[in-house]
Amino acid sequence: MSRVYPRWLGWLAIVRGVGSSVVGVLQAYNGPSVLLTYRLFPIFAVVVIVWIFIMGVLMWRNAGAAA
Fold it and tell me: Model-level pTM?
């Protein structure tokens, strides 16, 4: 709820979490498909990687301010 990190990063985390969960549930019920396995899953995986990188950079910058 603070303004330390941008709000859009929180929304991005929510979107990727919901999207990854939906893809996982659909794959569990229907099995692998071209759309889920080769298109949607890699998209959400890239979003996770980008989110982790951005959060890492922001946390690193803020760590110097807290010391």
Answer: 0.78
